[in-house]
Amino acid sequence: MKRESILWCRLAIVGVILSVSLGSCAEKQNVLTPEEEAAGWALLFDGETLNGWRDYNGTGVTAPWTVEKGTLASLGQGTDSTGYIVTDKQYENFELVFDWKIAAGGNSGLLYHVMEDSHLSTPYMTGPEYQLLDNEGFESKVEDWQLAGADYAMYVADPAKTVLKPVGQWNQSKIVFDNGHVEHWLNGEKVVEFEAWSDDWFTRKNSGKWDAYPEYGLARRGVISVQDHGYRTWFRNMKIRELPRKTTGREVSLFNGIDLNGWQVYGTEQWYVKDSLLYCESGPDKKYGYLGTREYYDDFDLTVDFKQFANGNSGIFFRSWIIRDVSVTGWQCEVAPPNLFSAGIYESVPRGRQWLIKPDPEKEKILKMGDWNTMRLVVKGDRVTTYLNGTQMIDLTDAKIGSGQGRILLQIHSGGGIKVAWKNLKVTRL
After folding, report:
1. Which of 59, 88, 118, 141 shows a CA-CA span of 20 to 30 A to 161?
2. Is-contact 197 70, C-beta < 8 A?
3. Which residues of the chain have pLDDT under 50?
4. How crowded is residue 182: how many other Cβ atoms within 10 Å of its Cβ?
5. In the structure, how many helices (H) and strands (E) does the chain have?
6. Nearest to residue 248, comparing CAs of 21, 83, 430, 18?
7. Residues 6 or more apart in contact with residue 98 via CB below 8 angstroms
């Protein structure tokens, strides 16, 4: 073989070796290491398909999202109210990491604990948002709570720790939601930290931005959503690790005997405190009224004493939330005059099934009209059990209830002439 041929052969072999070596050094995307798998991590995006994702409130993907060169990519055709996709699975407590980059001047977000329902048109009505933004190039003036890394309209990202990569380069973010303790990380720095459902959190929620969205941020589990807000955005290496639910098993009082602290009034009917008792009473409008906990209680054991002074048509709603004004969706443990099924379960979901279960007729005598009664309501998963004055009234297993979540609300029925007193409202999270 000629010397030139030998030289070219050697160069070709070196080239092959370098090519293999460089290829093996290239970082693989959208994969889990054995260590990550052992630690419980899972991929939200497989790098090749939209499997595991669908339209918000939908079943397939018609929103402007695609897979592009191993990335989950938005096409930049969405609006404030359109262009959202969500995970098939719901998540409660978790650690979520993801890489992202955004087009020049772009705006997007990743939301979690998103609820889905026909009465909820967009994910941001319920889900907190990790804000994604081209801070330098966005064309309009923005508030500090709109900048990248912020908990949108709630908590500002620490400017001293916020370092964004130039447009076109990848940023890495992390969200930790651990039983109400929340952290936002951006490129290796913790930029946000807060406690969800704390007094400070509710003060921010009630500052005006979320007035039209009473259920914002209250859900304790939900789907994860990404937003096409009219700008191209790319995601990769979306990995999540679920964290355990922590419960103290400690009983807490929902009513302090002094005022309505911790509760929210819906409607024009009367809710007031007198002589350490909580009263609901029909007002001039004689409409429905509700007094709701500011937090959600999904699995719980609740006891409450009630006394019906007049009529007594009321109830204890659970896993319920406000659609608008005084319209409620959820389930009710009935509190009613004699022979009207106190401790039975009624579905108040619009176009719902109404009565799901009524106590046996012989148990009607257990209610003491005009005297104090004790109602106990135990809700865990898809099972609901009620007790009145120590006697079990119903035991119901229902899948639809099992998928619900929401507040505890006391009701005053429409029609007028109703007055009920309440005391000793105590609850234990399960």
Report:
1. 141
2. no
3. 1-25
4. 21
5. 4, 28
6. 430
7. 44, 110, 172, 173, 174, 235, 236, 237, 238, 239
